[in-house]
């Protein structure tokens, strides 16, 4: 209702709600979170995340769903892969990545010293739907369209699943320890 000026974003939000079963009953300790945003006024995405809290501070992602409008798409598989990559990047940013400093210098000198998301942290359900653009739409591009919405959806789901407000990243350090 609040997206009258953003009909393409509203279409993504409706589609991702349908994909994820938004509003369905969830077991105790599980919650859904949502994020949506335009990207460079050329593409739009909405993401829903499902998180489960284990009651001991650990959190597991159970699903990620993305609906994205990238305008006219020439290679559907590559755009879907880009959205999937954005969501995995958001998992790392939300749950594990972070730079540590010692005496004003970054302690990680290479990727071997930097904590990235692993395949084990990717939920069993990751789905991407490309929303058909309106007639006459041009090329929009894929870029990092799904990254911001995915990060917001994960943070919201984790906060709701744990029952704690979260205000810093990564969520693993600080307010909500992840398993």
Give a written overview of the molecule.
Helices cover 28% and strands 23% of the residues. The protein is built from three helices and six strands; from the N terminus they run αβββαβββα. α2 packs across α3.
Provide a count of the helices.
3
Low-confidence blocks of residues: 173-179
* Beta-strand content bin: 15-25%
Spatial order of strands in the largest sheet: 1-2-3-6
Architecture blueprint of SSEs:
Layout: H1 7-20, E1 30-39, E2 43-53, E3 59-69, H2 76-95, E4 101-102, E5 105-106, E6 125-130, H3 147-162
Helix pairs in contact: 2-3
Provide a concise account of the structure shown.
The protein contains 3 helices and 6 strands.
Labels describing this entry:
179 residues; alpha+beta; four-stranded mixed β-sheet; two-stranded antiparallel sheet; 28% helix; globular
